[in-house]
């Protein structure tokens, strides 16, 4: 059996096929390329029971991933994160069957590790030696670290006010690091220029085809962890929307493989954004096919500060197809929710993950989530990566002073 059933790439706008055996970026019409597998052949030979005893990482699904030779796998042990019941916060918001897929314990502290592991492995396999990307922080940190492990040179450009911790991660692993006195869109232009001039591989979000495949594994894991019965609703903090596109793709592939019931509807996907940057919500409310650039975007949940996602049409398509929805949460509300989740469940989720819990609360309140539904909230990173979003208020004692009652 081959390690991967990778078949080819295709443009979701025109349907045109592209060979997967060499380095590819965007399609001819400027759309992200998607990865296709030989699902017919795979269906004959691969069954859920084959997963028993495999390593607890995303590579347990290697048949449905693009790396052809296991020797090219670059891993720090990412994936197969816990799917935890969160009954106390669930009871607090009136959702009896609420779960958290917790990406907070993954290498690099955010689920960007999934996309980086698969993206960097495949880049290595295709002979890439130098890559570049603009970032708001977590993606740059993950790609720089995995590139370091692969022996690939990484050039990372991030806004000056991207979180310090991600800057330090990139610095620690010796990548070429540049700060820009501007936004991620400015960093993007600088990367594009360097790519053109220096012949670097462009690893910007969705400008290479394989990051989606890494993030897709969250969908595969949710399916496996629930015994191949999918939940009713999955809430996802949406910036570029890579994970949302990936999760939806995963479910469609599993359905083709016959691993999940063909007759049942797929989970309703919810794109959760911050009120200070909500282009997908605005487009979804207008039933539009694409989003519009969101000017002066701002939020403490920096991972979802993406004013014009390249894959917006794919995100919206996944929302319409799954009969999901999109909604925006105020920063103050998500910060409140972050403390509530920590208090009730002992989980210090990242601000993006907190937004998802706040959204679940709101959707239960307005009846969009029904009483008996199984709901999964994706926590995409560790709260400890964001040391400045909370200010702890505590009395200062002198040595020997008695604790006030
Ligand atoms: C990047 C990021 C997101 C958004 O992910 P997309 O797939 O780009 O929508 C959410 N949460 C965190 C912590 C992130 O770093």
Automatic annotation (TrEMBL):
Keyword entries, A-Z: Lyase, Pyridoxal phosphate
- Record's Pfam families? PALP
> Highest taxon of the source?
Bacteria
Q: Which co-factor is required?
A: pyridoxal 5'-phosphate
The protein's Enzyme Commission number:
4.2.3.1
Is Secreted among the key words of this record? no
Recorded GO molecular functions are: L-serine ammonia-lyase activity; pyridoxal phosphate binding; threonine deaminase activity; threonine synthase activity
Q: What is this protein called?
A: Threonine synthase
